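Supplementary Data S3. Sequence and structure tokens for construct A.
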Amino acid sequence: MTRFFIKHRKAVTRGIIALVVLACLTLHGFMLKEVHYTITSPKLTGKDSFTIALITDLHGCYYGQNQKTLVDLLVKNKPNAILLGGDIYDDKIAFTHTDALLAQLSDIAPTYYVDGNHENWLPSAQYQAVLAKVQQHGITVVQGKQVSITNTNIHLYGVSDPASGGFDKDLQTVGKLAQPQHLNILLSHRPEHIEDYRAYPFDLVMSGHAHGGQWRLPFLLNGVLAPNQGLFPKYAGGWYQFFDGGQTTHLIVSRGLARESTRLPRFFNRPELVFIDINKR
């Protein structure tokens, strides 16, 4: 054995280094990241600023006892609203950790929910039970609905995931309700439908689903592969802006919170909890 190592010392050393690098990258992909965006909108009334926490793609993953890591970040940032952007539950993973988080959210801030594809992959009865459970936690389901945020002119809208079969109807319903004089926010799991969203006067669209493209090359490649976008996704994660004459649409795509649930480890693509500050000026 000693002779083997002496003879193949360089190859063994390279192998050990490669394993250490792989282990470090994998661990890095488990480290939660706190992400902040600031958007200015003269439409905001009633407050000088409004903070939103965006949670997507939890997939039932574990973030400490009673999800303490996530809860502590939320409490620290004091959001005015919490938006749950789909795939909070998973069709293959136990609901334990998701339930532990959702049970605490409405005590932090008013919380709003739309589903994702994984909730829709649950058996019908189980899916309905999930919706009932969400509402029992004091969370408002906004699929196909409009909600006016108290003491502001912010109107929040939601659409169900395309896997539900109700996406087009929901979007048409809420799109017709959206009036340009309001600050209109759309919560939708899928970012790749941005061109459909831009047909309506939404100022801000919040999504997830892409998991940050799973693997990233910092400063070179924002993501390698995302569901329903394929290789090198255009909307893997981040802040995107679109200008249509006098209408500006902001798209915020969270890289999500999935980690141990993913088939492949995340490289240079940490799970994230997103906070959006909307300032009047």
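Construct B, processed identically:
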Amino acid sequence: MGFGVWRAGLTIFNLPCYYTPFYMDGRTFTLAEAKQLLPHLEERLLAVKQEKEVLVRSHGEVKRASAKAQLNGGSFAGPRYIRALERISDSVEAIQEMGVLVKDLDIGLCDFPYLYDGRVIYLCWKLGEPEIRYWHEMEDGYAGRQPIDCLCEDA
């Protein structure tokens, strides 16, 4: 995967949990650049949401097939489940190739590294929000979100 994706663990549906504690490629965004990416991010994150629904619907069948794997068990849901995982992975990779940090796939939370007052902070956006309205320090995360209007911006 691109841009320093770290596999932190797996969720109940074996979705990789991605996080990057700091921006690794040195790319920063202006507010205007980050805003321009929102339609692309929204498209990718909605695709992830759709594929997660496939995982949820087929999870029970895949689990039963897995339990019978030593008996040459199988499932018609297996290939569909694998395709959904691959599509999710492709979407996350495409987002990261933009330089955007995926923080939480469940809520569609993304951060954009932003240079402010000589340090890097994150512009913070979540699927469903009409625009980027928040920022936070790198170590504060979602809980530390603050309104973006308190930042001076040239965009």
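Residues 1-22 have pLDDT under 50 and may be disordered. Residues 6-150 form one domain.
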